[in-house]
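hey so u asked for the seq, here:
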Amino acid sequence: MIDLYYWTTPNGHKITIFLEEAGLPYRITPVDLDRGEQFLPYFLSIAPNNRIPAIVDDDPADGEQPLAVFESGAILHYLAEKTGQFLPPDLRGRTEAIQWMFWQVGGLGPMAGQNHHFRHAAPEPIPYAIERYSAETSRLYGVLNKRLADREYLAGTDYSIADIASYPWIVPWQRHGQSLDRFPHLQRWFDAIGQRPAVARAYALVAEVNPGADVPSGVFVTGADTR
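ran it, structure tokens below
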């Protein structure tokens, strides 16, 4: 059993998507960021950087005590290694998947996150910051678009943790001031992943965990309640 400490953010969605795709049994402990639950001692003992998501694996491969993992990229890598899924077995494919996951963790996530903050959470508008992070988000969309021009997924022909990591950060494209019409290869990839039943199931959890969350339109697909 995987215990998932989760809130309804892009980084949280990465892990629910993986768990649904892999069919791993898991249970969610919500960590309400609005209430400051990420600072509670029990959570800090699992995730010392006070950020979701985090997991505790009750059955690690070494057969020893439960293992805690924090940071979304590290969790995806850990789960891929544990299950043997969504990480290509060959050296080159594996390297492609890992490097594009790190690209998301180091670039797309932080820049889109700052974009969101200055557009929707800052106490007052700062035009320079909005323009800067909107432009950088657009540049990163362009990087994805170019990468996907001649391949189905970020690591090539196989759906991987690189795709799972990046998709949730594209979901709020409208709130980040972007238009997917400008990025046809990214649009094709985005639509294909959005049609995956496991992705629909992952996003359907939002209504259960955080009913008041603002979920962008077009995320849920037919069959969200199927397993």
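The longest helix spans residues 91-121. The first strand starts at residue 2 and ends at 6.
lmk if thats what u needed
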